């Protein structure tokens, strides 16, 4: 594996792991029903550490994605065939992996945004259910889901870059003059030296 792939993998994984750690920490410190107070007909939601942790986790995830994508774009430009030819299978797989990485990252960012919004210091109207007054709160492990999806997105981004940096297939590698394989359906035309001149 090339040194550039190793360096990029370490950098992206550091950002992604830091984002995931903050996501798990936010999950452990998120708002619970016991934290919500009812006062003056509204539900009072106190500030929770999960709010800031979620913002930082989303920022680190975005940084990991930008680094992996920027490196992939710079590397991928040199892999695009000149003259508009068809792209190789490795390039297609790398592009698909990069796109999937961004899709997963966007889903993770949406989960972070949901968790951040519900853990901010604010007030919301209470909901009356018969004789009971309820205050809505965020259910489900949104921060944990975002942390795991962020790791998956980072791995997909690294795989995309590694495929782009990998060696080209043997069929696509240029060969010295005289060693090129004939195209399909084209007969091979060997070059013979000219016949020696005959004395008159």
From TrEMBL:
Name of the molecule in the record: CASP-like protein
Top-level lineage group: Eukaryota
Main localization (coarse): membrane
Pfam families hit by this protein: DUF1218
Membrane-topology descriptor: Multi-pass membrane protein
Record's keyword annotation contains Zinc: no
Residues spanning the signal sequence: 1-20
Cellular component aspect of the GO annotation: endomembrane system
Stretches with biased composition (Pro residues): 191-200
Record region (Disordered): 169-200
Annotated Low complexity bias: 178-188
Transmembrane segments: 52-73, 94-113, 146-164
Subcellular localization: Endomembrane system
Homology family: Belongs to the DESIGUAL family.
Assigned keywords, A-Z: Membrane, Signal, Transmembrane, Transmembrane helix
């Amino acid at each position: 594996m090339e040194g550039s792939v190793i360096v990029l993998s370490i950098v992206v994984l550091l950002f992604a792991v830091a984002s995931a750690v903050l996501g798990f920490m936010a999950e452990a410190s998120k708002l619970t029903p016991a934290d919500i107070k009812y006062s003056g007909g509204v539900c009072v939601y106190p500030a929770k550490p999960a709010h800031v942790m979620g913002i930082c986790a989303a920022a680190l995830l975005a940084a990991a994605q930008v680094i992996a994508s920027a490196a992939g774009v710079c590397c991928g430009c040199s892999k695009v065939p000149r003259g508009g030819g068809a792209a190789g299978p490795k390039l297609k797989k790398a592009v698909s992996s990069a796109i999937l990485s961004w899709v997963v990252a966007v889903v993770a960012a949406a989960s972070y945004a949901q968790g951040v919004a519900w853990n901010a210091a604010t007030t919301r109207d209470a909901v009356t259910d018969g004789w009971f007054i309820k205050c809505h709160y965020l259910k489900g492990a949104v921060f944990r889901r975002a942390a795991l999806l962020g790791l998956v997105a980072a791995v997909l981004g690294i795989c995309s870059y590694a495929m782009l940096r990998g060696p080209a297939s043997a069929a696509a590698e240029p060969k010295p003059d005289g060693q090129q394989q004939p195209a399909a359906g084209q007969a091979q035309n060997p070059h013979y030296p000219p016949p020696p001149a005959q004395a008159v």
